[in-house]
């Protein structure tokens, strides 16, 4: 959101973002008086659109007086480039129904506050980002039906087609876990997992069972048995995992909702890579019964969707109790966390965060995260996760050697090797991280990149995938080990590639976190 | 071009405009290396177009590498707003074939020079500004043919339809002079005026004879006998005069070229009001034989056209000798002259001048014009003009009382009242002005507003028209009394209304002045 060197004079970011909020709200309300007030008076003010320029605040006001309002739009990225302590060049990207737009505004602050001195607007229709053909590959779906399980026919999720991750029990089907040897020995499930049942009760239907990374112990979306699902939003790139098939199906439009799991980022990562809204609930807020475990201290069942309104409705259905619906007073931003992402990703996430701040009217506050903390919390998490993963699946893997790929086998092997003292030390770090984050989230909701980069190339190879995983785990494992809910907003762009902005809320604040989506897109 | 207070630090306008020139030329040549160099390197640089934004110089360069060049475009207005001594927000408007575009650029200067840190581009087709129906009214045409006089069928002006002002002899027709009583007593002309003959020899045809203000002694385009021609570019506004019908016909597309006269601005003013290219030649460079005189010391025969290429070809045909084709080294700008126009008009003309500077690569230099000089030279001109006008038509008017409207009669009456001493004093001022301007034009070509405002409302009334005329005469009479050529470029916009930028060159430099149009539009 800023390209300033630290030595530059302080900037009134709060004032600028508040002015942007006021502008957007006035535009949507066609509040001409406020819009006129926010444009600098005088003959030199500029407004460009399409093929022409209006020069002078009088001509701009005259145009506005007869325009009759602007079409509804929702900010997705607000790129702020400071041109001085009291001036900024702002480029805001927005979505509309079936379209998108860009506005450039040059803002200056004078004794009367922040005002636009020049603006440039463009926009138009955009092709639907959905390619129904892209997700027909067997790398995405293990089982498909028409539907596989019918919905109740009514309810808030009527007509919503769910891609169920192949860790979740579907009555009459086996759980495959992304490993053919697991599928072979799996029993036919007698009942739906309770989480799935809640979606069905709300009217959703099961479109099919979607592929997962092997035993969910990967963030890449590469499965050597079933293949790598096509990422419809990032051709040539991996979809992310382990909820890879659910993400690919939803991104391709062959499903509307992905029901998946997130232990270390398995919903947030494919959400980020495939441009989807992702929700990891508070640990324990959604039942994990009937779901193949990985590391029970951290396992959650959550959702992916193309739009915020569907995610919000489905998340509400999944939550047993509405819980805390409080709204934060401030959005928190940490330079340390942003710098865990690539510079391009950090800029993209900052632009998405500014859009969130403007759209919600919430101010942004910078907070300190010690530079060495992420490496420490990631290492501790990985130790506990590996030990629990071995506890979950060690017996099976010992009985079936060679049934998972070497990289996954190595992760389980690391878990087998964790000693008791090492585990205790790691749990202490987790506990301290949790206490620290609880304090932080009492101040406001923490915003950070969902992943350290956009989706890696399918050709990145094991080393490339491992590097992406290691970078991203420093960001994802914070919520995982602290049990707090996380919402991934697919608003960042690095070139054409999506990348997520992740918002962490206090434990139990899932309903409030989902409510953040209200007004941020078509209902 | 600037909104700076005088106390602000000096600004590198020359460097910025040179960078803009380099950018435009590289864009037209698809010189990707230069374009890449002119965009600031790094991940924060922005380029917006349509529905999306590219973030980062690498992504912008990748886009540019495969774009394969941009469509030809010609700058018309470059609005420069300084955001600091080393930074400017630039909004440039351009024309394309059948379209137009706008680009916003935020430029900053660092140790490597001026670079773009953010850009926003839009554009598209524009409706043809021509309404063939609008000029069928008898206020525009006195006589029309199909054609009235056929052309030679070949030559550089083949197919060009000329609207001949009703002061110019057309063989077989009478000259009407905008006064029915004059028409009644006028003989049928035996031959075309030599200026018209030159156009016909070059292949043009005569579409008809277009109305004029009464005896050409007005700048408004209102004629109480024939009416006020529709100004197709400015509905509800006067077309300007006295070449009013020619301008209206060309603007409406029922003619391609207006052959008119300019004594005190009678081509430049309707050109400015109707959005046309206008050329007043060096006094004496185009023969005035066969043309009804007004004030022979200042009378010229010149042209109006919708596009620069037609004006350039027709002007070349009109000039007996090619003359001096030298190009200036600099464009001169005077704050005093700009401030004779309304603030909106001055800003519009500054934007047009910046576009001319960028398109030609010529630097802009500010020159001093004493604040009291324009009033003095205007008064002197009006004295001499009125005296000569009375000498031209006093006998007729005395013999035909009441045949012209009161405002025109008053101007002639003022001419009758000019005494010998007053005339001598006025001629001295004219001579001094001429010497001063000759010195100035030896440095570069002087750029000023064609008119002090865009076209006044048709409802402005005698006082409104007189005020517009008085303001504009301070600008137009400089070229008139000095006999220098003037080129009106219809590039300024005040709201939707056109307003001209006028370029004055040394006496005899007509060919060079017309050559300035090369490369400034479609050939």
Automatic annotation (TrEMBL), chains A, B:
Domain of life: Bacteria
Region (Disordered): 223-245
Amidase domain location: 152-307
The protein's name in its UniProt record: AtzH-like domain-containing protein
């Amino acid at each position: 959101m800023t390209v300033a060197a630290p030595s530059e004079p302080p900037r009134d970011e709060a004032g600028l973002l508040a002015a942007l909020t006021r502008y957007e709200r006035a535009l949507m309300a066609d509040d001409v008086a406020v819009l006129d007030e926010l444009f600098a008076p005088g003959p030199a003010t500029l407004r460009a659109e399409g093929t022409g320029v209006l020069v002078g605040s009088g001509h701009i006001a005259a145009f506005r007086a007869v325009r009759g309002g602007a079409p509804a739009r929702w900010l997705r990225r607000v790129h702020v480039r400071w041109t001085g302590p009291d001036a900024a060049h702002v480029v805001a990207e927005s979505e509309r129904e079936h379209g998108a737009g860009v506005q450039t505004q040059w803002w200056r602050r004078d004794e009367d506050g922040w005002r636009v001195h020049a603006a440039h607007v463009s926009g138009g229709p955009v092709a639907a980002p959905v390619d129904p053909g892209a997700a027909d590959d067997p790398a995405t779906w293990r089982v498909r039906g028409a539907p596989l399980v019918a919905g109740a026919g009514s309810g808030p999720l009527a007509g919503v087609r769910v891609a169920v991750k192949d860790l979740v029990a579907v009555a009459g089907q086996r759980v495959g876990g992304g490993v053919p040897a697991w599928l072979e020995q799996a029993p036919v499930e007698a009942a739906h997992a309770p989480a799935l049942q809640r979606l069905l009760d709300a009217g959703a239907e099961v479109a099919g069972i979607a592929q997962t990374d092997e035993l969910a112990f990967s963030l890449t979306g590469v499965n050597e048995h079933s293949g790598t699902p096509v990422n419809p939003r990032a051709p040539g790139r991996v979809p992310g995992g382990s909820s890879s098939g659910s993400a690919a199906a939803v991104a391709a439009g062959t499903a509307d909702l992905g029901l998946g799991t997130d232990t270390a980022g398995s919903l947030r990562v494919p959400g980020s890579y495939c441009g989807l809204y992702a929700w990891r609930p508070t640990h324990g807020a959604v039942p994990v019964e009937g779901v193949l475990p990985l590391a029970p201290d951290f396992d959650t069942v959550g959702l992916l969707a193309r739009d915020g309104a569907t995610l919000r409705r489905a998340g509400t259905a999944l939550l047993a109790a509405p819980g805390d619906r409080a709204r934060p007073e401030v959005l928190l931003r940490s330079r340390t966390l942003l710098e865990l992402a690539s510079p391009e990703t950090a800029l993209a996430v900052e632009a998405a965060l500014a859009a969130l701040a403007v759209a919600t009217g919430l101010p942004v506050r910078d907070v300190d995260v010690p530079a060495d903390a992420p490496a420490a919390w990631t290492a501790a998490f990985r130790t506990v996760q590996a030990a629990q993963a071995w506890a979950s699946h060690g017996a099976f893997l010992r009985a079936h050697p060679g049934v998972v790929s070497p990289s996954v086998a190595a992760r389980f092997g690391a878990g087998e090797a964790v000693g008791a003292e090492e585990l205790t030390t790691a749990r202490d770090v987790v506990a301290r991280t949790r206490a620290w984050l609880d304090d932080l989230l009492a101040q406001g909701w923490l915003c950070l990149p969902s992943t350290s980069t956009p989706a890696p190339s399918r050709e990145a190879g094991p080393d490339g995938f491992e590097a992406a995983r290691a970078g991203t785990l420093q960001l994802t494992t914070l919520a995982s080990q602290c049990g707090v809910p996380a919402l991934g907003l697919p608003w960042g762009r690095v070139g054409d590639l999506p990348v997520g902005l992740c918002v962490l809320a206090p434990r139990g604040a899932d309903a409030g976190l989902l409510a953040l989506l209200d007004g941020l897109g078509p209902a």
